[in-house]
Amino acid sequence: MSYFREHKEGFWGTIIFHAIILILLFLFGFFTPLPLPGEEGVLVNFGNSKQGAGKEEPAPAPRQSTAAAKQEETAPPVQASTPPPPPPAAAQAAPAEAKEELMTQDYEKTVALEAAKKKKEAEEAKKKQDELARQKQLAEQKRKEELETQRKQTAEAEAKRQAEIQKQKEIEAEKQRLAEIERKKQAEAEAKRKAEEERKRKEAEEAAKIAKINSMTNVFGSGSGGAGSSDSKSTGQGVSYPGGNQGSPNGGNSSKYGDGGTGSGNSGNGPSFSLSGRSATGLPKPSYPGNEEGVVVVSITVDKYGKVSNAKAGVQGTNTYNASLLEAAKQAALKASFNADPNAPAFQTGTITYKFVLD
């Protein structure tokens, strides 16, 4: 950078000087005119052959006489002498010249004809050049049109190819979507099938378990079903789901539902139940939580598979409302089980009676 600052005057001077030289060369340079001008001839006058013949020698040119005069002025003086006689050969040469055979030209090429011919040739050359330029321009235009046509065809082919690719992508996406839907349907069907198989398996296990339990002897034997008395048989009435107003018109406050039905129990103070058309497969005894006696009647809801789904202690027939006895009776009722009956209502209601007696 410091070098440029030190020599910037020299740089600018060199640049300006060369710029002036280039401008002068452009302005005053030699140019060749195009097209080139035609060559011009030189007029030569050969004169007339008859007029050219003569006996006298033409006088010398004035330039020659002037030169001779100068030579005489510069020459040193000499003694006068008699001039020599004219040579006879000069007089005799004139007739000899008249005897020479003269060459003539019948046709003379004029400058105007040559110029017209050259002009015509120049015009023809110019026409040829213009024709060549026109043909070249047409060829270039044709080439450009072909390139444009080829470009359009290429663009159309590329557009078609892209459209085909897009179409294939859409088809593949649709196939994948349908395959995914089909896969989900199959998965759902498989899940349903497995769930159905699992349900059937559980039902079969429950049925086998219930059949096994039914084959066992009743834990509490047979006895009164109404209030757990020592009678061998009693009547009771089951309540079907969803239930309603049931009972005997002639019954009292202490009577059971309906006209009575069969039930089972054990002699003594064991629990007894009332559930129409069903038999107990398990009636566990409640734990005795205190020092109080009483009877607790529990209302139960049983499904078709024999399971107790709901229990409510302290319904009609209960003579004690000790919370411990009610809770113990409810928990024992929830653990009870009955035989499975596919023809039974979805939910069937009944009662289980528990007697708490002090030892």
UniProtKB/TrEMBL annotation:
Q: Where is the composition biased (Basic and acidic residues)?
A: 184-209
| A biological process from GO | bacteriocin transport
Q: Does the keyword RNA-binding apply?
A: no
Q: What's an example GO cellular component term for this entry?
A: membrane
Q: Where are the transmembrane segments?
A: 12-31
Q: Where is the protein localized?
A: Membrane
Q: Does the keyword Cell division apply?
A: no
InterPro entries on file:
Tol-Pal_TolA (IPR014161), TonB/TolA_C (IPR006260)
Disordered: region residues: 50-101, 125-166, 184-292
Please report the record's description of how this protein sits within the membrane. Answer: Single-pass membrane protein
Keywords of the record, alphabetical order, are: Membrane, Transmembrane, Transmembrane helix
Q: Where is the composition biased (Gly residues)?
A: 258-268
Alphabetized GO MF terms: toxin transmembrane transporter activity
Protein name, per record:
TolA protein
- Write down the species: Mangrovibacterium diazotrophicum
